[in-house]
Amino acid sequence: MSVGEDFANSVYSLSEQTSLQALGEDEGGVLLKLESGEIYTINDTACAFLANLDGHRNVRDCIGPILADFDVDEATLLSDLEELVVELEAESLVTKS
């Protein structure tokens, strides 16, 4: 199994100390780290992905709606989201289930 496949089959959720707020169509969103008050801005694709993380569905299941709504292929999306998740895990904003 490749690294990308391992990521695609992984399950994530927002940490309990993370709040996600969409800002509106084509406006992206923000993540708020509740314990520190730090705010992170994210684009529409990242916002849609993070909104789908529920701690039950794997990444591949979470990206289905994104592939339908955004002009991106699955391999590119998975690669970009894997980079995002690594960064967000390092900041304790998402957790692997």
Using only C-alpha atoms, the radius of gyration works out to 13 Å
CATH fold-level name = Outer Surface Protein A, domain 3
Instruction: Give the distance, in angstroms, between the N- and C-terminal Cα atoms.
Output: 19 Å
Q: Based on helices, strands and strand pairing, what is the structural class?
A: alpha+beta
- The amount of beta strand, in percent, is 15-25%
Number of domains: 1
What strand order characterises the main sheet? 2-3-4
Q: Which whole number gives the mean pLDDT? A: 94
What would you say the CATH architecture is? Alpha-Beta Complex
What is the CATH class name? Alpha Beta
Order of helices and strands: HEEEEHHHE
SS summary, helix count: 4
The helix content is 40-55%
| Total beta-strand segments | 5
Which parts are unreliable, with pLDDT below 50 for 5 consecutive residues or more?
none
What is the 3D shape? globular
* Main β sheet profile: 3 strands, antiparallel
Provide structural commentary.
The structure is a single chain. The protein has one domain: Alpha-Beta Complex (Outer Surface Protein A, domain 3). It has four helices and five strands. A three-stranded antiparallel β-sheet has the order 2-3-4, with helices on one face. A two-stranded antiparallel ribbon has the order 1-5. Strand 3 and strand 4 form a beta hairpin. Helix 2 packs across helix 3. The radius of gyration is 13 Å and the shape is globular.
Key terms:
single chain, 97 residues
Q: What's the structural blueprint in terms of helices and strands?
A:
Blueprint: H1 3-8, E1 12-14, E2 18-24, E3 28-33, E4 38-42, H2 44-52, H3 59-69, H4 74-90, E5 94-96
Antiparallel strand pairs: 1-5, 2-3, 3-4
